[in-house]
Amino acid sequence: MRIVKTVAAMQRLARRWQTQGVRVGFVPTLGYLHAGHMSLVARARRIVGPRGRVVVSIYVNPTQFGPHEDLSRYPRDFARDKKSCRAAGVDVIFAPGDGEMYPQNGDGAYSTYVVEETLSRGMEGASRPTHFRGVTTIVAKLFNVVLPEVAVFGAKDFQQAAVVQRMVRDLNFPLKIIVAPTHREPDGLAMSSRNKYLSPVQREQAVVLSQALQLASKIVKHKPVSAATLKKQLERLIAAQSEARLDYLEFFDPQTLQPVKTVGQGTQMALAVFFGKTRLIDNNKL
Q1: 87, 172, 213, 275: least CB-packed within 10 angstroms?
Q2: Region 55-81: what's the mean pLDDT?
Q3: Residue 243 falls inside a structural domain
Q4: pLDDT at residue 198 above 90?
């Protein structure tokens, strides 16, 4: 396994693979890898095959964090990440620094960003106004550096995956986006690097996110219901957890991401809940 830290070196390698006809699968991450990330790596490997190359990027991207979010304390363990990647058969870890990804211009500023203006407005976009500008910018840059044939994202970040898919389509990136299923703990909690922050009590209560999804799915299984009515019922479920504070809970069309007034089978549900300072997200198709 090779570790590459500069844009120039990664692009040279990617161009060589292109000329050799080597298929490249890419998994972009913030690091602090867990089994969910490794499932994305396994998916990329299945797609490109044993003769292809799988690249994992490890970069805590500052532009997708708001001014009062957890950039400085976001968990990092590069030594552990290397072991996980090596065990999973990753060919290259691309681990750039801020100076590589956001080079300063003559005026001392980085000034070019990629913005998706429709799918990114609600939910995560409303709660974290600059988040998706940072996501689309860094993902576009990584695509231009790694030059993958396919990139694999997790379904836990449903809106992010939708925004990236729209960006790829609208800007004619020559690659395919794969969205792999959410990887969960045995009790149903979606795997996340931020789960590390949870106290024992918060960890126990955090399963309420998946419980809310399951309850909603059960309720709409036999007949559609009012979104307002269902939301109130799920809000009561979440409020019963002493450590939980709901950020948002939305029902929407999975293609347009537009809110719906009536919830039925096929409606997408997403929610974000704070446990102390830790904010967790989850979603599912009902």
Answers
A1: 172
A2: 94
A3: yes
A4: yes
